[in-house]
Amino acid sequence: RSRRHIEKFYADEMERIGRFPNRARPINTSPHTDTKGELSYQDLAEQIGAFKLAVYQPSAYVIDRQRLDELDSRREAQNFNQKDSERFLVGMMRVNALKRLESSAHALCLTMERTIKKINDLLDKIERYEQGDESPTHELNHGEILPDDDEEDEEFVENRSRNPYRLTELDLPRWTAHLKDDRAMLSAVRDRVAAITPERDGKLQDLKQRIRHKANQPTQNREGQPNRKLLVFTTFKDTARYLYDNLKPLTQELGITMAMVSGDETRATAGDKTFNAILTNFAPMARQRQGRQADANHDIDLLIATDCISEGQNLQDCDTVLNYDIHWNPVRLVQRFGRIDRIGSHNSSVQMVNYWPTDDMEVYLRLQNRVQARMALADLTASGDEDPFSEEDMERDLRFRDAQLLKLREEIPDLDQLDDAPVLADFTLDDFLTQLLRYLERNKDALEAMPPGVYAVTEEDGKAQPGVIFCLRQRNASTDNQHHTASPVHPHYLVYIQSNGVIRYGCGGARNILMTFEAAAAGQTQPITRLCQRFDQETQNGRRMEHYETLLRDCIAQIRQAHHRHQATGLGRSGDADFQLARASEAPRSARDFELVTWLVIKETP
């Protein structure tokens, strides 16, 4: 549940448990990756974008007619085949390499070394085959053509081939040439980042200064007790290990205890090293440490973690979260901060510190906009009549992510304030359904007699800003539950758009829209005559509706964008050959695909 949801529906409990801490404005910094200035983030990012990564896409080199026919049949049946999967995977791997560069030079160096080894092993196998070695089966196993698990962040899952190729089915001379080109390029990048030792690592040095300041000049909680606790998040376990190893001398000097947790590894400089024990020793008050565990000598002040703890953990003894790298999903940053921004915290305020790879946000957004992933998705539409993704959709999605990241530099929003990020509460609308059922019991005949498209006009208040809440029903909605949907009330869509055309809540935020609707309209049983007259004057009694038609088109564009984002998410994470994209005929594409059920106009106060 979001902070705002708790504040509204659990006010009595908050009086008993305590309130939320204040959120300080985020601290944004961009320490140099290389203190000598020899490593350019922009140059390396552009090199990463040029990687072919032929090792991960053997389907591009298939020459066997039967295999080619199988690929064509699969695309015709599912609008997606193994070749498309590999193309998408390569785009994601380029993105992954860029994010590892942003995380640490050490993490990127390991990626380059692992990929080079994979290429070398594959080239050796091809060479043995061409020299007449009959001992191997000459099949490519999963380990030879897929990234190592260590390459993944907590959310990165690649599509695993179920039908490995035999070398006899591939154009080996062309594949070998491309593999060697990749090896040369990867080796050049590896050599550059390998030169960044811990002593030259500007981010690491900046982190050491912040840890030293936190230990020597700690903040104080509401009881006046010093708070030296710092929670450092990183997307990659390789970076987590690197930080733990290189911060150990500093923690010994400062007399503080440190631990590290990732999905499959835990470390600690004192106390029990199990996962739950580390979290309990980091937040003994929040996790109610008792008995033999209650040894203050085991208290942990510095915790380095991957996103394995970004959800569901109470760590509010700590008052500062430091994002050592910026996760590709802005929602994850808010979830990380939610570990310390919790009801009943003993801290009067909580702080987020963000490490960005560059001060120039225009450069950063341009480079991190996952151009290669967008190209991979666009390639999926190169054949056939289906068009699940378009360039316009992808560009709109990238602009949406950009806006979320920029917002996070200025403030820390609730999850439900990230325009199109549905939270669990969005799918539990029981309180609103109860109100609706009661209303239906009393007004069933009147509601059934109402034509589609009815509207009402109400006045703004503190929660409802001028704009329109549209309720639409998708005419061509799929009944297949396997297809991802962007709306908790599918096949209906709710969108709240402000009068200036800014989407306040997209179709994923059904609960917030209904709460806004309730705030603006609850208790209004009769038309507000003066507002209706204003509306009639502005629209010339409904003859001049251009403004509202524009707002409606913008809402439909947002729904289309959200639909494609959900499709892309399922595509990127599925790892399942049975995953199917929604057919274009069942995708929301234009106004013709929707019926306007009702709309609420919220007018500004004169």
TrEMBL record:
GO terms for molecular function: hydrolase activity. InterPro entries: Helicase_C-like, P-loop_NTPase, SNF2/RAD54-like_C. SMART domains: HELICc. One of its GO terms (biological process) is DNA repair. Gene3D superfamilies: P-loop containing nucleotide triphosphate hydrolases (3.40.50.300). Residues 146-156 have a biased composition (Acidic residues). Residues 130-142 have a biased composition (Basic and acidic residues). Keywords: Hydrolase. Residues 206-395 form the Helicase C-terminal domain. The keyword Hydrolase applies. Residues 130-162 are annotated as: Disordered. Signal peptide: none annotated. This is Helicase C-terminal domain-containing protein. It comes from Candidatus Synechococcus spongiarum 142. The lineage of its organism: Bacteria, Bacillati, Cyanobacteriota, Cyanophyceae, Synechococcales.
